[in-house]
Specification:
Blueprint lengths: L1 E5 L2 E11 L3 E6 L10 E4 L3 E9 L2 E8 L5 E6 L12 E2 L1
Parallel strand pairs: 5-8
Antiparallel strand pairs: 1-2, 1-7, 2-3, 3-4, 5-6, 6-7
């Protein structure tokens, strides 16, 4: 169970994050899935990726969509091995 933030909404320890060649796949824990269907974000829609760190925590922030539909914050380890898919600033 992973955590992430999309816009103003925090998903604390209720997300499954799967990384593939196509992009990021996000799914909320089954108890909350009724109002939150699974989501696949293609790599081409992930922009302005910035690495952040505070104390022992490290994460990335990115804009989703060409017109910045939403900002997403994810654990940095999610992108390990897929750095070539996104341009990591910082």
């Amino acid at each position: 169970m992973q955590s992430a933030r999309m816009g103003l909404v925090n998903y604390n320890s209720i997300l499954t994050i799967h990384v593939s060649e196509e992009g990021l796949h996000l799914a909320v824990w089954w108890m909350f899935r009724l109002s939150h269907p699974a989501l696949m974000i293609p790599w081409s829609e992930i922009r302005n990726v910035v690495a952040k760190k505070f104390l022992w925590m490290s994460w990335v922030e990115a804009d989703i969509g060409e017109e910045r539909l939403v900002k997403i914050s994810l654990p940095r380890k999610v992108l390990e091995g897929y750095e070539s898919r996104v341009r990591l600033d910082a």
